[in-house]
């Protein structure tokens, strides 16, 4: 009888790591190795990150500017008043009665009555034409109703023009339409600029990764001969491109934040001089995180395109 070999009870049992654990370990190793390669060449890494940061900051800054302009236009459109100048023969009592009738309409938010005396006092204080107004003698100004619409302002303006007491209805919406057109053009221009500079960022990352691949060409050739897959070889370079992108996105956000802080005090003083509380609004935390993730994905894509092409060329050369 064959004697069965006895295994001591205290002998440790070695288990081979699962494929998932090995895959995760290589991802962690690739990320750490990529950070180490960045730290090994700080000046070259800073140059690449700086170029990518500028390429990202330009369209992002334009988007922020357009977003603030849209907020400002929204604030202006909320104060879209209609000035209804009554005929000279309409007295103040009739003007107030007409204001009450308009206030009862569903498409009118509020009506403010300004008497000829109030208009004359405002004109004297704003224009400095005291001597000319004294020469005129009699107050030439009519009563004014300042109407704030609650619905369609264009339809309300047409209705006010049809009133028998109406003399002049001042309502200029054309400038807002032109401003909306400029904002739409700016948005389209921002997208075009983002595409062009995004391609530039891809080329920067791709060229940097390509140089790193050329320096490790012999190592890659040995790994290919040992049967390593393209995914295994490509993974460290993908993480390298992603690290470039994430750091460039963070630098771009830091630059835009510094510009925002430097522009807020003079803009706030300018807005307060016009009686407005408008302030610049930068990136929220969610938008900032989206920028960083998007920049990392851009770096990952650039590295993936260059690495895949280089690996195919290397296999063709070896064969």
From TrEMBL:
UniProt domain FtsX extracellular: residue ranges = 82-153
Can you list the GO cellular component terms from the UniProt entry? cell division site; plasma membrane
Keyword Cell cycle annotated? yes
This protein's UniProt keywords: Cell cycle, Cell division, Cell inner membrane, Cell membrane, Membrane, Transmembrane, Transmembrane helix
Cellular compartments annotated: Cell inner membrane
**Domain ABC3 transporter permease C-terminal residue range list:** 192-301
Q: How does it sit in the membrane?
A: Multi-pass membrane protein
InterPro entries in the cross-refs: ABC3_permease_C (IPR003838), FtsX (IPR004513), FtsX_ECD (IPR040690), FtsX_proteobact-type (IPR047590)
Q: Where are the transmembrane segments?
A: 43-66, 189-209, 237-263, 283-306
What domain of life?
Bacteria
GO biological process, any: cell division
How the protein assembles, per its UniProt entry? Forms a membrane-associated complex with FtsE.
Q: Which family does it belong to?
A: Belongs to the ABC-4 integral membrane protein family. FtsX subfamily.
**Task of the protein:** Part of the ABC transporter FtsEX involved in cellular division.
The entry's protein name is Cell division protein FtsX
